């Protein structure tokens, strides 16, 4: 019987048939009606604008200058090689004694066996719960719906 009346339309539907999203959707204001406004276009104005006169001008090219650079065969003297022999540091043989090995027996932690008893099972029969005292109510609109004239 609840589905036949429309989704969320029955005022005191049981909790299984009540959909809170229907109430939330009714919180928003109604859509504004479409108003068709015909705005006249501006009148067309045909403006004939004169173009500027074309002036042809011959611009002479710059003269080509061929610059031939004479090859220069010049030997640049290299810097003199300086051989610097740096003496190495003297080798120092250092015999460092190793640390003595110390054997240490570390005892393992004792194992502790903890037996946690299970909680006893308690069977509880389901309790009949009454339907909620509130029902679906239309949310107030920001604007009243338009009445047919």
How is this structure best described in words?
- With 149 residues, the protein is mostly loops.
- 4% of the residues lie in helices and 0% in strands.
Essential attributes:
about 150 residues; little secondary structure; flat
Short description:
It contains 1 helix and no strands. The protein has one helix spanning 20-25.
What order do the SSEs take from the amino end to the carboxyl end, as H and E?
H
Strand content: under 5%
Q: Largest sheet at a glance?
A: none
Share of helix among residues? under 10%
Radius of gyration: 51 Å
- Unreliable spans are 1-5
List strands and helices in order, with pairings.
Elements: H1 20-25
């Amino acid at each position: 019987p609840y589905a036949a009346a429309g989704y969320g339309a029955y005022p005191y539907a049981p909790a299984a048939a009540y959909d809170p999203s229907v109430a939330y959707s009714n919180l928003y204001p109604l859509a504004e009606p479409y108003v068709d406004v015909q705005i006249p276009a501006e009148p067309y104005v045909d403006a004939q604008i004169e173009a500027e006169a074309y002036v042809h001008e011959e611009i002479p090219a710059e003269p080509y200058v061929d610059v031939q650079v004479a090859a220069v065969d010049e030997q640049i003297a290299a810097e003199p090689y300086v051989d610097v022999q740096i003496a190495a540091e003297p080798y120092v043989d250092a015999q460092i004694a190793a640390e003595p090995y110390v054997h240490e027996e570390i005892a393992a932690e004792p194992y502790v066996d903890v037996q946690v008893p299970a909680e006893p099972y308690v069977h509880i029969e389901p309790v009949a719960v009454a339907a909620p005292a509130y029902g679906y109510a239309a949310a107030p609109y920001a604007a009243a719906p338009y009445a047919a004239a």
